[in-house]
Amino acid sequence: MNIENQQRNPVLLIHGIDDTEAVFHKMRPYLIQQGWSVYSLNLVPNNGDMGLDELAKQVADYVTATFAPEQRLDLIGFSMGGIVSRYYVQRLGGISRVQRFLTISSPHYGTVVAYASRRLGCLQMRPDSIFLKDLNSDAVILGQLDFTSIWTPYDLMIVPANSSQMPIGSQVIVPVTLHPWMLTDSRSLAVVTAALAKPIKLPLLKEKSSQ
To answer: Disulfide-capable partner of 127 in 102, 110, 177, 210 (CB 3.0 to 4.6 Å)?
Structure first.
């Protein structure tokens, strides 16, 4: 059991719009109890006033300040935090740091709810926004990671709900009825734990052992 824990990456949690790291009040202690070391940060501002690309720089800075350069990470982004995390992975070098990447109810293809605000972050989360089109243009890069998109068909914050589903990696439906419950429902926690516990393929080690 100790060997298994030593092989686990630290987990970094990224919250959504109008949230803080406190939104992980159930998931964080649950993962710690399961043996992971868990980190999170508060994105500032959290209300959509700042572009998601700028918020992603906060993630990049946090990773640089908190972890050794050779330390690999597992990354979980909730709602807007999933898109912020994608920008970090796809545009700011996170692809070389992150091994497992989970998004939970994130508007990968936008949400019509974002039309309710003209704040820059909300403009970027509208369906067919230039920002999302650019990010999705090379989303295939996520195939280099162990990537999982987790979503619910009943989401009233991500409309249409299947905007949270990505055609890359694994997709898991957790049929809860409210957006915030995706972080607290026992089924969500089980899915997250299973995704984080998946072994990472190490081709070089396999080749070595076959000789």
So the answer is: 110
